[in-house]
Write a structure and sequence with these properties.
Layout: E1 2-6, E2 9-12, E3 17-24, E4 32-38, E5 45-50, E6 57-59, E7 67-72, E8 77-82, E9 91-98, E10 111-114, E11 118-123
Parallel strand pairs: 2-11
Antiparallel strand pairs: 1-3, 3-8, 4-5, 4-9, 5-6, 7-8, 9-10, 9-11
């Protein structure tokens, strides 16, 4: 499956963006799909994921209540709605697909397919 991420941009603190991750060559029904981000000089970190096995969603603590991950099976697209953005949310955001076990949902190594990344910049 190939992933194409889009929707990044420059936004002021408190603003919103919606990222999209479109899949081709495979269906998101078969994959757990997540979002990760990497700020300059930092390691890639988990943001959110949609677990294919139980349809549950998981978030890192810093984005709970602000970000929402959702999936449109018909469009074969996963979204990340980001509200109340903060400067510390600035990063390149990547979507990823895989079949991780429950204990590895937050691990980048558990995802086998990656999109190219989309830059989100939040100004203060």
């Amino acid at each position: 499956v190939q992933l194409q991420a889009s929707g990044g941009g420059l936004v002021q603190a408190g603003g919103s963006l919606r990222l999209s991750c479109a899949a081709s060559g495979g269906s998101f029904r078969s994959y757990t799909v997540g979002w990760f981000r990497q700020a300059p000089g930092m390691e890639r970190e988990f943001v959110a994921t949609f677990n294919r096995n139980n349809n549950n969603v998981y978030y890192t603590d810093s984005v709970k209540g602000r970000f929402t991950i959702s999936r449109d099976i018909r469009e074969n697209t996963v979204y990340l709605q980001m509200n109340s953005l903060k400067p510390e949310d600035t990063a390149v955001y990547y979507c990823a697909a895989g079949r991780p076990i429950l204990s590895s949902l937050r691990s980048a190594n558990a995802y086998t397919h990656w999109g190219q990344g989309t830059l989100v910049t939040v100004s203060s």
